From TrEMBL:
HAMAP family reported for this sequence: KduI
One MF term in the entry's GO annotations: zinc ion binding
InterPro entries hit by this protein: KduI (IPR007045), KduI/IolB_isomerase (IPR021120), KduI_N (IPR027449), RmlC-like_jellyroll (IPR014710), RmlC_Cupin_sf (IPR011051)
Cofactor note: Binds 1 zinc ion per subunit.
Catalysed reactions, semicolon-separated: 5-dehydro-4-deoxy-D-glucuronate = 3-deoxy-D-glycero-2,5-hexodiulosonate
CDD domains listed in its UniProt record: cupin_KduI_C, cupin_KduI_N
Gene encoding the protein: kduI
Protein name: 4-deoxy-L-threo-5-hexosulose-uronate ketol-isomerase
Gene Ontology biological process terms, A to Z: D-galacturonate catabolic process; D-glucuronate catabolic process; pectin catabolic process
């Protein structure tokens, strides 16, 4: 019996989104349940054919299985994948080679890989592997990225409630990829705003995955064109899809961490169109 669940989300544009109510927005863009015990949950988005999901080996190892939309024998026949562990100590087997992956460590696996298996080191504190995947036109080597190997940016200020540390992990200059990029932004105590000033990048899409949201707290994620924004309230360990035409920003009722992943036409991290804060509507 398969341990893999998936759903397909079709791309919609700003005109359709403008007419959407709360439930429609949530069903199109919010990914509510990423982690279920001994399951792999995936969402296949038609924005840049991006896949976001989670695998939770709570009592046994879980192999990465292909899904029907890929029309391929193996999941990574024509894809690359990035993985960040947000749980207990784990191990990932890549074509028989083991990579230890601890909390907030990342692993990139290139296309052409046949077998990927997720495993927890201690079942009393199982790993939770958050995964992003994008189509790939060539194969690059598997590479682990620890916090120490990340490119670290300190942005924002306490005065504007957006002091944050950006950990660029699977990005050009650290890992060779076809189009996938991933990293992690940690809000400092007392700061709540992420990705502010807001921006869009019409040449790539993005997914935000919110973690370390304290119990009984929430994050309000903002989306939509700069002149007609919408919001989605989110809880811990939920993700949200950001279309290329949409901003992607959030404010929490406490500080938190989020993992960002993106794919599209280029690998230029600074490729974006910034909107002045007082121009948002």
């Amino acid at each position: 019996m398969s341990h893999t669940n998936y759903e397909v989300r079709y791309a919609i544009g700003p005109d359709e989104t403008r007419q959407a109510g709360t439930e429609k927005l949530r069903s199109e863009f919010l990914i509510e349940k990423l982690f279920e015990a001994d399951q792999i949950n995936l969402v296949y988005s038609h924005y840049d054919r991006y896949i976001a999901g989670g695998t939770f080996p709570a009592s046994k190892a879980l192999a990465l299985e292909t899904i029907d939309p890929l029309k391929s024998e193996n999941f990574l026949d024509r894809r690359e994948i990035g993985i960040i562990n947000v749980g207990g100590e784990g191990k990932i087997w890549v074509d028989g080679v083991a990579y230890d992956l601890n909390y907030k460590e990342a692993l990139y696996i290139g296309s052409g890989t046949k077998d990927v298996v997720f495993e927890s080191k201690d079942l009393s504190s199982p790993a939770k592997f958050y995964i992003n995947s994008a189509p790939a036109h060539q194969s690059y080597p598997t590479k682990k990225v620890t916090r120490e190997k990340a490119n670290i940016l300190n942005l924002g200020t306490p005065e504007t409630a957006n002091a944050r540390t950006v950990n660029q992990m699977i990005v050009s200059g650290i890992v060779d990829t076809c189009q996938l990029q991933m990293g992690m932004t940690e809000l400092k105590s007392g700061s709540v705003w992420n990705t502010m000033p807001a921006h869009v990048h019409d040449r790539r899409m993005e997914v935000y995955f919110y973690i370390e949201v304290p119990k009984d707290q929430s994050v309000c994620h903002f989306m939509g064109p700069t002149d007609e924004t919408r919001h989605i309230w989110m809880q811990n360990e939920q993700a949200v899809i950001s279309a290329p035409w949409s901003i992607h920003s959030g404010a929490g009722t406490s500080n938190y961490t989020f993992i960002w992943g993106m794919a599209g036409e280029n690998l230029d991290y600074g490729d974006m169109d910034v909107c002045d804060i007082n121009q948002l509507k």
